[in-house]
Amino acid sequence: MFMDANNGITTVETVLNSYISLLLGFVKALDDRGGDYSKLRHSLRFKWTQSMLGDTPIVQQDAIFELISICQEYGIWLMKRASAVAGKDEIKMEEAKEVHTCLRKAAGVFSNVIPEIDKLLDKPDPGTDLDSRVMNAYIQQCIAEAEEVTIARAIELKHNPALISGLANEASKTFLAAASCVKALDASKFGKWMRYFQLKSVFYESYAYCYLGENLLSLDKCGEAIKALQEAEKNLQMAQELCKEYEKFKGPGKTAKLDQHLFFRSLSPLVKRIKEKCERENGMIYHQRIPSEAPVLEMKATHGLVAPENFELPSISQRWTPVAYSAFDLSKNLNPKDPANSKAAQKAEGPLPPMNEKDVHQSAKDPKTSSGCLIQ
């Protein structure tokens, strides 16, 4: 079901919860022999590839590894589900809410598995999905992209420009935090992802200054407004350069044509229109000096901030009765330190075949909205 982002959330969650409720019998202790973990925790071997490291799997004989990995897969599927819904030719309000919900849920899933990772390994290999830097990057990306939906909604409903500026500034800082998470990781694997975060951060900083300028003009601070619009222009030019750099950079994942989206293209004429209005009004009415320093962006938006949605594991399946649990015979159980579990053995097994994911529609049409927002 994870191979198809067209599946509904409820359908996927029903199957997922059924699986996890059974898996928990291999994780939690169900007898009084002492300890928190099931006697079956190390009875099965699990293989998972890592989202940024190709087809060579990590193999661990540990049910907690499986629990973490299946939850991570669910979080990644939620992100793909958000993209599938947002990729429709015309997106309705209920569908926009689903995109927002999917991203908040995904952030909650990733947040939930980080404490479990700490129980599993003292020091995960760099760049794996067990690396907290990778998980934190996913969390920040989900929050930032959910904030994009909020910004689009605020623009669509013509909310106060100060609010829109604050939201855009929050999105910019969140994307920058995501870039910081992966900055120290292997550039050949993570460089493209980092550049995506960086260009999104600069792009939303441009949006923040644009709407700050509009708000300052409404407050008769025309000189400061012009300086804010100059900063918006500078950041937009930087974002355009980063787009070219991002598209050229090789790395895992598809390349989003961000500068071709209406939401990106519409910013330049918006900045130009507001700046020309500010300069015209300053020349005819205000005659204010343009400051050398850019005005300070609002550090915290007052409304519309995105928080991860809490994720909880289901209860253990009722099929795990004391009789069923005690009936498992571990006398022939594999030892986690057995040669069959060595790195050499894992290498000999070779990579896992790639999954044949179902295609999802991604509209090439411009959205029929004022904002032009599109999540990919």
UniProtKB/TrEMBL annotation:
PROSITE patterns with a match to the protein in the record: BRO1
UniProt keyword list: Coiled coil
Segments of skewed composition (Basic and acidic residues): 356-368
Domain of life: Eukaryota
Domain BRO1 span(s) in chain numbering: 1-337
Coiled-coil region(s): 222-249
Pfam families named in the record: BRO1
Region described as Disordered: 334-376
Family: Belongs to the BROX family.
Protein name: BRO1 domain-containing protein BROX-like protein
Natural source organism: Leptotrombidium deliense
